[in-house]
Amino acid sequence: MVNDKRVYLFDSTLRDGAQSQGVDFSVSDKLAIATALDRLGVDYVEGGWPGANPTDDAFFADPPHFENSRFVAFGMTRRPGRSPENDPGLSGLLNTSADAICMVGKTWDFHVDVALEIERSENVAMIADSVAHALTRKDEVMFDAEHFFDGYKSNPAFAMECLEAAHKAGARWVVLCDTNGGTLPDEVARIVATVCEKIPGSHVGIHCHNDTENAVANSLAAIRAGARQVQGTINGLGERCGNANLISLIASLMLKTDYDVGLDDAALKHLTPLSRLLDERLNQQPLRHSAYVGESAFAHKGGLHVSAVAKDPRTYEHIDPAVVGNQRHIVVSDQAGRSNILTRLAEIGIALDADDPGINKLVEQVKAREFEGFAYDGAEASFELLARRARGEVPNYFSLARFRIMDDRRWNARGELVTESEATVTLEVAGKAKMEVADGNGPVNALDTALRKALVPLYPQLKDMRLVDYKVRILTPQAGTRAVTRVMIESADSQGRRWATIGVSTNVIDASFNALHDGITWKLLQDGAEVPLEVAE
């Protein structure tokens, strides 16, 4: 039996989000975000536009393995005057390993007349031909109707002709795009309802931009009017004012309506970590006032609010913050966090009773360290080590006696300006000192190389470990060059594991070492390494 309440989630963060000013995803960023979305369980993850840039090409050449989501490639319909079989852009789109295709085409007569300068009948044929051809290569094809709402208001008959061409050609979804974000909820509801009289809502999607701060409202209005696919991005990332915020949409649909988005309560708790993961990947401060997941979303200042919340949180909280992975924050005296800590401990295999006294100690330790600048939402490996160290479960694989970094900036014999880094590390392993020296491409690479040079002979498990990302954030910019810095390092190994660690210090090299130390330690712990009984002199 068809579930009329089923709404399918389509995430376009990796393409639409990349169009945000100041956003430049690396391949490792895209891998981490796509993996997190798949873990959450959204129906579709759009990876980007193959052929548009080297990053997207590299990502599609070696995409992550999806367990729950369908991997989608984005592109355009065929060009005017070409057959779909002979269109290079369309061929590149179909030659990817993506499970499904989403292609965009014009539905506004103004664009067809002025931008494309083609006959309107040719535009309709471009849509139908492209969808039909794509279905010979992929089992699911979607059509994004660009500027649909403007097109419908200008010429409803032509806009509908474009949609129906895609639908009749076999498109699984025809997606109505409010591309410039200028449509209001009442207009969206009316137009979507009219579309669903011609095309079943089970084949209609909605894609809204946020230029009037109505992207989420417009998306919800479209769903109420019959649309059953909703597109958006994590945290509403996107060009200009952004796209519909998929985080808010998921929470609102699951907690405020009877629609089914295919996620369970356990997935809902991952919304806050997912939101903050994106901010960490972008090396930016999370927006405190974001609905559901912001640090201030359930914050209460002293006075009547705090008193009322203490008696019954429902007085000023529309939901329990824990259901979305967030927590209550009493500004004058921090509280809560126990449920979040317990959930995160369970995820890494540490089962503790809620009354265990160690929970309170760990909560306070996390809060104290986050006050110093640590952020464990994006550094799960460092959080796991923090918890396991508190329980005495992490062997002392090695400790640092000292390190020294030297940078040499000079002109070489060919008159070229070169900068070289050299690191010297002295470690203690099993009570014995071990010193190594290494050069590197910058001080952090030199330090990492020296550490590995010292440790790989003792711990062969580290041979396949590699650093895949390195980010630095200035936490106290008002302090100038004396600022506290946060370093986040992502590592990977040949087993397909990726893990993130964090370090904080007023010295960026010291912060880097702390993150490197955690990264190496986590790898050794996961591999079951044992501290050697003896170390050769």
UniProtKB/TrEMBL annotation:
GO terms for molecular function: (R)-citramalate synthase activity; 2-isopropylmalate synthase activity. Keywords: Amino-acid biosynthesis, Branched-chain amino acid biosynthesis, Isoleucine biosynthesis, Transferase. One of its GO terms (biological process) is L-leucine biosynthetic process. Its EC number is 2.3.3.21. Residues 7-269 form the Pyruvate carboxyltransferase domain. Gene3D superfamilies: 1.10.238.260, 3.30.160.270, Aldolase class I. It is an enzyme of class 2 (transferase). It catalyses: pyruvate + acetyl-CoA + H2O = (3R)-citramalate + CoA + H(+). It comes from the Bacteria. Belongs to the alpha-IPM synthase/homocitrate synthase family. This is Citramalate synthase. It holds the Pfam family HMGL-like. Pathway: Amino-acid biosynthesis; L-isoleucine biosynthesis; 2-oxobutanoate from pyruvate: step 1/3. PANTHER family: (R)-CITRAMALATE SYNTHASE, ALPHA-IPM SYNTHASE/HOMOCITRATE SYNTHASE. The lineage of its organism: Bacteria, Pseudomonadati, Pseudomonadota, Alphaproteobacteria, Rhodospirillales. InterPro entries: 2-isopropylmalate_synth_dimer, AIPM/Hcit_synth_CS, Aldolase_TIM, Citramal_synthase, LeuA/HCS_post-cat, LeuA_allosteric_dom_sf, PYR_CT.
